[in-house]
Specification:
Distance between the termini of chain A: 49 Å
CATH class of the largest domain in chain B: Alpha Beta
Number of domains of chain B: 2
Oligomer: heterodimer
Helix content of chain A: 55-70%
Distance between the termini of chain B: 26 Å
Structural class of chain B: alpha/beta
Helix content of chain B: 25-40%
Order of helices and strands of chain A: HHHHHEEHHHHHH
Largest interface: A-B, 30 and 37 residues
Largest sheet of chain A: 2 strands, antiparallel
Number of strands of chain B: 11
Strand content of chain B: 15-25%
Strand order of the largest sheet of chain B: 1-11-10-4-9-8-7
């Protein structure tokens, strides 16, 4: 891991891959299939339930697993910025129009605005759902070597989605490195990311365009190099994914049972 | 030494080629890019079995365009190219990539797969090898370049030198007749440059593969090449042994190149000692024996 992070609020692909390749946590010993199955289980759970207690417990369990895997907690909280902004931008306004017991009421330009307990509950529930999925996805990525991750995608996704994914990941690094070097050139002459967005907006538009153009040029060169080795439209990975142990099968069964239990007891899903 | 043409616009004089040993014959081929710029112009070039040919010339002289023709990435607008008996003319669909492997200048352009093993197996699988045969070919190639320990690595975490070795392994695994390397030592530290230089020799000596080397590094060309072709304005301008070419100051000036350091050192030494520079050493051993002889 040599490149500096672009921002403390954007997940750092280099750091994520560094942890994934280091393979030192107890979760690294689990089969990637198990972790992938749990991703599906968790997505199903947060989709099915709106119960705050279940969501809070689930979040805490994942957070504890994240910490126990010796992954960087402080970084994780920094990376929460984007999902939090996303959730608040989605339901920030809806929270003020939810029916329920009023907590705060005031008038804006002659219109009464009321924040209710259900409004707060809505924001907290959606925030928890988002953070659960984000935290587990990062946990999955940071404890699974990329070769297994790409092999899972290759086996599950249809073509050309698998092809797109197989090629994209490697070049995300190159594009990030390219963006990083352009930003370093900006910073070395007194520019800064936030500072310059306001003052040098035009220049940043040019930086963005430059990254795009350079990426396009590189993709042409990569394509040429692939053709030079006989590329005819598709390629695959030869990685074999470690299979599941008995305990992992049992864990997945337990996870599925929890999902079924939640589905049965949730009123809108037949409970 | 053969002067193929005295003026870039004059008609070329193609050298006599030993047909028995001929692997590549570029016969007065020209290529004009869609924007009208000339890539190569009436290029005459050949490669024989088990030889290392260095293409030396300034930026934009047509070295990389020629290499892309050898692999079939480009086809000539005029003239033709014969590779191992297959003649390719304008617009022909080719599978020359099976015969001529290309190692590109930027390794990052070549390494795209999730792991080193996937990348090295990419070419063999495209050739129709079974997965097992491709795996064996990949492992043999990785061992040959001394990078077998990197097999499960992500290409992103390799150093520049390691990436270059993996790029060569990716081509070697396809077992081509000829390998063309575009600036193989650019941006490398001296240790990795030395490894690549050793590997180029090994390609010829151990694997019997002919090598085409496009390079600005005339010192490298002097040390490894059997034959040097000077490229200027899209054409091979002159060819000969390294000693013939690199001791011809006028020729190098005309091509826009500076002589290798060994030539400069030898000439400076002779000048300082006030002795005639009548020998043409092109490596340290030859220079030492030339100096001792005086």
């Amino acid at each position: 891991m040599s490149a500096a992070a672009l921002s403390n609020h954007i997940p750092d692909l280099n750091l994520i891959t560094y942890y994934a390749e280091k393979q030192q946590s107890f979760l690294s010993r689990f089969s990637p299939w198990t972790k992938f199955a749990f991703l599906i289980i968790i997505v199903l759970l947060v989709t099915l339930t709106g119960n705050l207690t279940i969501l809070a417990v689930l979040y805490l369990v994942i957070l504890i697993a994240y910490a126990a895997a010796h992954l960087p907690l402080r970084k994780l909280f920094g990376w929460y910025t984007m999902p939090i902004i996303f959730v608040i931008s989605l339901v920030g306004i809806m929270a003020w129009s939810e029916p329920g017991n009023p907590i705060i009421s005031f008038t804006v330009a002659g219109f009464p605005v009321t924040l209710t307990d259900n409004g707060i509950l809505l924001v907290v529930t959606l925030l928890l759902k988002a953070l659960i999925v984000v935290t587990y996805s990062l946990l999955f990525l940071m404890t699974t070597q990329y070769k297994y991750f790409s092999a899972i995608i290759y086996r599950i996704f249809p073509s050309p989605l698998d092809q797109i994914f197989l090629m994209t990941y490697r070049f995300l690094f190159l594009t990030l490195a390219m963006t990083g070097s352009i930003l370093n050139a900006v910073r070395s002459r007194g520019g800064g990311l936030i500072h310059s967005i306001f003052i040098q907006g035009r220049m940043f538009a040019e930086v963005f365009a430059l990254v795009f153009i350079r990426s396009f040029e590189r993709s042409e060169r990569v394509h040429k190099a692939m053709i030079a080795r006989g590329f005819s439209g598709s390629y695959g990975t030869v990685t074999t994914i470690p299979s599941l142990r008995i305990t992992e099968y049992l864990l997945i069964c337990a996870g599925v049972a929890v999902v079924l239990a939640v589905a049965i007891t949730t009123p809108s899903f037949g409970g | 030494m053969t002067i193929i043409r005295t003026d870039p616009l004059s008609s070329p004089h193609c050298p006599h080629i030993d047909k028995e040993r001929e692997l590549i014959h570029v016969d007065c081929a020209s290529h004009i890019y869609p924007d009208g710029s000339v890539g190569i112009h009436e290029m005459c070039f050949y490669v024989q079995k088990n030889e290392i040919v260095a293409l030396c010339g300034p930026n934009g002289s047509g070295k990389s365009t020629l290499i892309e023709h050898l692999n079939g990435l480009l086809t000539p607008s005029k003239g033709n190219i014969a590779v191992n008996g297959k003649v390719i003319s304008s617009g022909d669909h080719t599978d020359l990539w099976k015969e001529v492997g290309v190692v590109f200048q930027q390794s990052d352009d070549q390494l795209f797969a999730p792991t080193v093993l996937d990348d090295v197996m990419f070419g063999p699988l495209n050739m129709g090898m079974t997965r097992e045969a491709a795996l064996n070919a990949a492992m043999e190639a990785l061992e040959a370049v001394g990078a077998a320990d990197l097999v499960q690595k992500l290409p992103n975490y390799l150093s520049g030198g390691q990436k270059r070795l993996i790029s060569i392994a990716g081509i070697l695994a396809m077992k081509p007749l000829i390998i063309a390397l575009d600036e193989p030592t650019s941006d490398l530290d001296p240790v990795h440059s030395g490894m690549i230089e050793g590997l180029i020799r090994e390609l010829k000596q151990r694997f019997g593969i002919s090598v085409v080397l496009a390079t600005h590094d005339l010192d490298l060309a002097a040390r490894v090449a059997d034959r040097v072709c000077l490229v200027r304005k899209g054409s091979v301008f002159a060819e000969g042994t390294p000693a013939e070419i690199f001791y011809d100051e006028e020729l190098l000036n005309e091509t826009g190149l500076l002589p290798p350091q060994i030539v400069t050192v030898y000439r400076t030494y002779c000048q300082m000692q006030e002795i005639p520079a009548d020998q043409h050493p092109i490596n340290i051993e030859e220079m030492m024996s030339a100096i001792r002889g005086k």
